[in-house]
Amino acid sequence: KNEVEQSPQNLTAQEGEFITINCSYSVGISALHWLQQHPGGGIVSLFMLSSGKKKHGRLIATINIQEKHSSLHITASHPRDSAVYICADSWLTFGEGTQLTVNP
Amino acid sequence: EAQVTQNPRYLITVTGKKLTVTCSQNMNHEYMSWYRQDPGLGLRQIYYSMNVEVTDKGDVPEGYKVSRKEKRNFPLILESPSPNQTSLYFCASSLFSSGSRGETQYFGPGTRLLVL
Predict the structure, then answer these.
(1) Residue B57, pLDDT score
(2) Higher confidence at residue B2 or residue A70?
(3) I need a surface site. Which of A50, A66, B59, B83 has the fewest CB within 10 A?
């Protein structure tokens, strides 16, 4: 069973800052998911990636298959980005999540 | 609108009183699953279904049952709920099974369950 670990567990930033959340896993995978959980509890899928980099607006996700590592970057962070960010391997073993708070 | 719906959204019950949480998707997805989310433990899979009449245990199936009689519905049944089943539950679906295809999962809004 894959071990999926995220860091940091909690992250507080000021509006406008560049944010990085990291995810590492122990067993090789074919794809990695990044999810966002809103303060109200709802979960949405942000990215699914198997190599390289994907970008959606201010969000960028990268993955290094050889190093078993992925990062989620948020540029020009905004208070509305405050949420829990979760990574999951292709078999849906989830990390514990990173609680992000962006202060105005 | 493509969506996964769950009902009820909130439920308070007592130990031993059977309950069912419904889940329905309108995207003709083959794969459906149930998760529970607990503080410090993250999301854990309870049961999943690859297609109609095909279900299998996830990581934490004890105390739960599921059925998949129709493609769109995947109810979660707690025959005799206990306080340790107090949790936030999510249903999810994807076009095909996760794994090598790495399909995007669509999540329901969640059901907050409190068992007294």
Answers:
(1) 94
(2) A70
(3) A66
